[in-house]
Write a structure and sequence with these properties.
Its EC number is 2.7.7.9. It comes from Kitasatospora phosalacinea. It catalyses: alpha-D-glucose 1-phosphate + UTP + H(+) = UDP-alpha-D-glucose + diphosphate. Keywords: Nucleotidyltransferase, Transferase. Belongs to the UDPGP type 2 family. Strand 2 and strand 3 form a beta hairpin. The protein has two domains: 266 residues, Spore Coat Polysaccharide Biosynthesis Protein SpsA, Chain A (Alpha-Beta Complex), CATH 3.90.550.10; 37 residues, no CATH class. The protein has 306 residues and is an alpha/beta fold. A five-stranded mixed beta barrel has the order 8-11-9-10-12. A two-stranded antiparallel sheet has the order 2-3. 34% of the residues lie in helices and 22% in strands. 40% of the residues are buried. Helix 3 runs antiparallel to helix 4. It starts with 11 loop residues before the first strand and ends with a helix. The chain binds uridine 5'-triphosphate. The site of uridine 5'-triphosphate has 21 residues, from helix 5. Uridine 5'-triphosphate binds next to helix 5.
């Protein structure tokens, strides 16, 4: 095994948030889907909080049209802060200021949304040759089930790149990137990825391990992305670049490992999953939970019968 102390640390996170969010139209006509509220915080704030909790305080957000709302959310809101402070509303003031203090935020425009691989490639200059994390802005990992810190630990131990894997119903695998894997000695939750295929038909899928929206990437991915032609849906797919890296050894930017995630995760760009996220997180909140659970119980027992 290579000496992990020789590896460069992971200090930066890239958050692609430039997709068109077509599954959520018309809500996403003038608002990025990453700004849709999950209870009372936009989905993107959970993602930035997750990166900060894993020690990544330098965050580059890849934005597109409608980027103003995203930038404003992580910036000061002087009028609002002044008003709340004049009213002595310390609790709301704290909540307004929270998003500003999380991390050092940077922004880059993707231009045309040519796919996730393309969104990652525009981060090259900012990342400056170090391994880095990628957190998809519409993928919410429950804060109680940490994943990113483990992925960084595995990357520091094994080098190369690390993806997050989740077991899904084989009937659902066509919605995800899918990984063929073999076991490693690093633990039951760590696999070597031997192949990757984007959104395969169930019959062609090499496994039911789906790639979810967290990555720790070796910077060689940028060289590979430059050579990656548009794939499925005419988009430059990150999966295709990772597939190439999975065939390489460490001196050449490979290999790719997967960390198996068994916690709670929501795709907030999908309407049904978005609703599940809100119901679950609201029901479990100390402030809203008691009232909401009482209503929910009643709703399920009366309205949902038959
Ligand atoms: P999705 O495929 O879920 O985003 O990309 P989308 O294209 O906006 O969604 P639909 O299918 O039209 O509803 C996953 C993540 O990658 C970002 C998205 O913002 C999302 O966070 N993304 C995707 C980009 O930043 N740029 C792209 O060109 C594509």
């Amino acid at each position: 095994m290579t000496n992990k102390h020789a590896r460069q640390p992971v200090t930066k996170a890239v958050v692609p948030a430039a997709g068109l969010g077509t599954r959520f139209l018309p809500a996403t006509k003038a608002t990025p889907k990453e700004m849709l509220p999950v209870v009372d915080k936009p989905a993107i704030q959970y993602v930035v909080e997750e990166a900060a909790a894993a020690g990544l305080s330098d965050i580059l957000m890849v934005t597109g049209r409608n980027k103003r709302a995203l930038e404003d959310h992580f910036d000061r809101a002087y009028e609002l802060e002044e008003l709340l402070s004049r009213k002595g509303d310390q609790e709301r003031l704290r909540r307004v200021q929270e998003s500003v203090q999380l991390a050092s935020m940077h922004y880059v425009r993707q231009g045309d949304p040519k796919g996730l691989g393309h969104a990652v490639s525009v981060a090259e200059q900012h990342v400056a040759g170090q391994p880095f994390a990628v957190l998809l802005g519409d993928d919410l990992i429950d804060p109680r089930d940490p994943l990113l810190a483990r992925m960084i630990e595995v990357q520091q131990e094994l080098g190369g790149s690390v993806v997050a894997l989740m077991e899904v119903d084989p009937a659902q695998i066509h919605l995800y990137g899918c990984a063929a894997v073999k076991s490693t000695e690093l633990g039951e939750d760590v696999f070597q990825v031997t192949d990757l295929v984007e959104k395969p038909d169930t019959a062609d899928a090499p496994s039911n391990y789906a790639v979810i929206g967290r990555y720790v990437l070796d910077p060689t991915v940028f060289d590979v992305l430059r050579e990656t032609p548009p794939g499925r849906g005419g988009e430059i797919q990150l999966t295709d670049a990772l597939r190439e890296l999975a065939t390489r050894d460490e001196s050449d930017g490979g290999p790719v490992h997967g960390v198996l995630f068994k916690g709670r995760r929501y795709d907030t760009g999908d309407r049904a999953d978005y609703l599940r996220a809100i119901v679950r997180l609201a029901a479990e909140r100390d402030d809203l939970g008691p009232e909401f659970r009482t209503w929910l119980r009643q709703f399920v027992s009366t309205e949902m019968q038959g």
